[in-house]
Specification:
single chain, about 625 residues, alpha/beta, FAD/NAD(P)-binding domain, six-stranded antiparallel sheet, 21 helices, binds flavin-adenine dinucleotide, binds 2-acetamido-2-deoxy-beta-D-glucopyranose, signal, Dehydrogenase xptC
């Protein structure tokens, strides 16, 4: 290891540690938490929890406690440095396994979810882009008027500081953006890497050859086309901008009223009748329970799985489920835990006759290249280590009719399906009604050309990844006992609507089309097992997808949806839980449908909006 690298690395590590030590002023121990009165108790110190905590504590008279099951991270390279990103070295995820997926060959999958101060933003892939305007429009049409595009756009801008790339680099790399879409004073740092692998040009041109246009700005509400994606990376330090850094560390010193109790797990919401008064919690490592009271509200930001679990354990959920577990029903809400969505995806492996080096795989296979890029990163914050390790820089987002000439046939098939029959047996009529309304929106999007239904990413190495951005299938989360320490059942029910499988085939074939276009063909790519360029039979492709796709991108959502009660809703347009006072759900659970993007950009904006809605509640009251 060259000496200059060691010096540079310790310089970075030192600055991180030094900053963090002084930022812990408001990290509280359990006893302190117990002896302080809080206006708001926030359950879950993830993306949304910390954003709301930050904004509420801007008023020094408002006292907020965040209780987070996971720890503060230790500033590891695998967390902070894009080029060192490695999930296997990041110890900040929950350990949960899904039900066997009947439409994925009965395989079970790990359920990726962040568990740290910062939640998912500490160990995620940092891919950041807003949804299509049509996503926000569809949420609005389903009743989530607070998620309308014009409502959230100013908040999405407020949340971010966007740093544009250097003009000459942008021109060389085909990076395009429109500064007027972006914020420049928010805490979440957004930027593009400052390097691209040479093969990126081949893929870019191949996509153009198959009819893609380049999108003007992936964040402008019309992301269809090929684009560089923005990342949650501080453009100066070239390190991760996670919610712990951008909504806690940078304000902690000046906020004696902002407390975080890490390593503690909330086990129940304490209700007096239908009024929320506090929560039960205990050390995550095990130990006695305590209670904490909130004089104003409890805000649930525990993510789509754990928020569902807490609601159900506390008597807020489907009556039949609660009664079967001897839990007293406080609010019978059939929608709690229903409507689970994520973005299924699969890797198509490739070999090349004439692959171009360097590419993303060389960071793994060529130690000389990896060290050279590591040195460059620590010396000048440049090069391949500014990109999330194992990824390239660009994506293709496309509509259904871009993916396949058979789009109208698929839409017609979907129209003939019985929505009720596609949901788990015994699903409540209100949830079915909500699902029917969603399908109307989805099928309209399938017929249109402004909401992506698929995404393709070539890493520049031996993998292309193909996603379903807008699936029709719906899963569920349910507690299996009234013991707060037991894991809930998570069933993604991926591809249980057969139309999703048809779309997966179309997306795999779309990827093949790009890879076979002249600019990629010069590299001599061929799909490897279990795929193969000569496998064109749709049934054969379906069987490969069934055995090889996975159910999740870590974007699990929508299990406490903001839709009307008669559509299976759980929260109203102020994120308040129906039938309960002083309780809101503030996290990704409240989206009515998954966004066709990655979720962070929308969630940071949504959490900013929620903070304002809460502030208004108490200034006008
Ligand atoms: C592996 C992975 C990769 C991803 N990649 C991307 C990406 O590239 N781009 C993108 O936009 N999104 C990505 N995501 C998704 C994104 O991180 C999440 O959608 C986002 O963090 C959700 O925000 P949230 O506030 O709803 O929940 P989270 O950020 O998940 O926060 C919930 C927090 O609540 C805590 N908690 C849960 N239960 C309890 C309890 N009972 N008591 C106390 N605390 C509790 C959790 O430990 C967690 O810290 C990824 C996620 C994962 C897991
Ligand atoms: C917290 O306070 C409650 C009473 O409000 C008490 O019963 C409990 O033992 C206290 N817990 C701790 C850890 O101090
Ligand atoms: C994860 O859970 C499984 C089964 O519930 C258990 O066997 C395993 O030890 C756990 N792993 C970790 C790292 O906690
Ligand atoms: C999956 O499991 C179900 C129930 O156990 C069974 O009926 C079905 O045949 C299995 N499918 C596959 C592909 O193994
Ligand atoms: C950028 O686009 C032009 C064509 O518009 C193409 O010639 C060039 O190779 C592309 N480069 C990259 C890095 O995508
Ligand atoms: C971004 O990184 C620079 C350099 O380390 C640092 O000075 C700055 O405070 C960071 N910005 C934020 C918002 O964290
Ligand atoms: C838990 O509570 C029991 C009974 O009150 C007490 O004896 C024990 O010391 C407590 N344990 C801890 C770790 O506080
Ligand atoms: C490995 O990387 C080094 C440094 O970039 C380069 O000179 C060398 O050609 C690469 N080796 C292979 C086999 O690609
Ligand atoms: C496709 O090609 C591979 C290798 O060239 C061969 O092994 C396989 O049998 C072929 N499959 C079909 C369906 O022709
Ligand atoms: C709580 O219950 C009371 C009495 O039944 C009712 O009047 C009130 O509307 C309920 N609160 C909410 C938020 O539903």
């Amino acid at each position: 290891m060259p000496l200059r690298y060691i010096a540079a690395f310790y310089a970075l590590a030192y600055s991180v540690v030094a900053l963090r030590a002084s930022r812990h002023a408001t990290q509280v121990r359990r006893l302190d938490a117990n002896s302080t009165k809080y206006d708001f108790v926030i359950v879950g110190g993830g993306l949304t929890g910390l954003t709301v905590a930050d904004r509420l504590t801007e008023d020094p008279s408002v006292r907020v406690l965040v209780i987070e099951a996971g720890p503060f991270d230790e500033g590891q390279r695998a967390v902070l440095v894009p080029g060192a990103f490695d999930q296997s070295e990041i110890p900040y995820y929950w350990n949960l396994t899904s039900e066997p997926q009947t439409s994925l060959g009965n395989r079970s999958f790990s359920v990726p979810m962040g568990k740290a101060v910062g939640g998912g933003t500490v160990g995620n892939a940092m891919v950041f882009f807003r949804a299509a305007k049509g996503d926000y429009d569809s949420w609005e049409a389903l009743g989530a008027t607070s998620l309308a595009y014009d409502t959230l756009l100013p908040y999405m801008k407020k949340s971010e500081s966007f740093t544009a790339p250097e003009q000459s680099f942008a021109e060389k790399g085909n990076v395009s953006w429109d500064e007027s879409n972006h914020g420049s004073t928010g805490p979440v740092q957004i930027s593009y890497p400052n390097y691209f692998y040479p093969g990126s040009a081949n893929w870019w041109n191949a996509a153009l050859e198959t009819g893609f246009d380049s999108a003007a700005d992936i964040n402008n509400g019309n992301p269809i086309g090929i684009s560089w994606f923005t990342t949650t990376v501080n453009a100066t330090s070239r390190t991760r901008s996670d919610a712990r850094i951008n909504h806690y560390d940078i304000v902690a010193k000046t906020r004696p009223n902002y407390h975080i109790l890490a390593d503690h797990t909330v086990t129940k919401i304490i209700l007096e009748g239908n009024k929320t008064v506090g929560v039960d919690y205990q050390p995550t490592a095990g130990g006695n329970s305590s209670q904490i009271h909130a004089t104003k509200e409890v805000l649930l930001g525990a993510g789509a799985i754990q928020t569902t679990k807490l609601l159900q354990l506390s008597g807020i959920g489907p009556r039949s489920l609660l009664e079967s577990l001897s839990i007293a029903v406080v609010s019978d809400l059939p929608g709690v835990g229903a409507n689970l969505q994520d973005q299924p995806n699969g890797v198509v492996p490739y070999t090349f006759q004439d692959q171009i080096n360097p590419n993303a795989d060389d960071l793994i296979s060529n130690a000389t290249f990896d060290t050279e890029q590591e040195d460059l990163y620590y010396a000048k914050r440049e090069g391949a280590w500014t990109i999330t390790r194992s990824f390239g820089e660009t994506v293709a987002l496309f509509s259904l009719c871009d993916a396949t000439a058979d789009c109208q046939g698929m839409i017609a098939t979907a129209r003939e399906e019985d929505p009720a029959a596609l949901l788990p047996a015994g699903t409540d009529a209100t949830v079915v009604a909500g699902y029917k309304a969603q399908r109307e929106q989805v099928l309209e999007q399938y017929a249109g050309d402004n909401v992506p239904i698929g995404m393709i990413h070539w890493t520049t190495g031996g993998e292309a990844i193909v996603w379903l951005q807008r699936p029709l299938s719906r899963g569920l989360v349910q507690i299996q006992s009234n013991n707060a320490l037991d894991n809930p059942l998570v069933d993604y029910r991926t591809l249980t609507d057969p139309v999703d499988l048809d779309i997966a085939v179309a997306n795999v074939l779309k990827n093949r089309q790009i890879m076979q276009a002249p600019s990629m063909a010069v590299l001599g790519p061929s799909e490897s097992y279990p795929y193969g360029n000569n496998i064109t039979d749709k049934d054969q492709l379906k069987s490969i997808i069934t055995s090889n796709f996975g159910p999740t991108t870590g974007h699990v959502c929508c299990t406490a949806a903001m839709v009307p009660l008669d559509k299976g809703g759980v929260v109203d347009t102020e994120w308040k839980v129906y039938g309960i006072s002083s309780l809101r759900v503030i996290d990704i659970s409240t989206l009515p449908m998954i966004s066709s993007s990655t979720p962070m950009a929308t969630l940071y904006g949504m959490a900013e909006k929620i903070a304002d809605v809460i502030k208004e509640t108490y200034t006008t009251a």
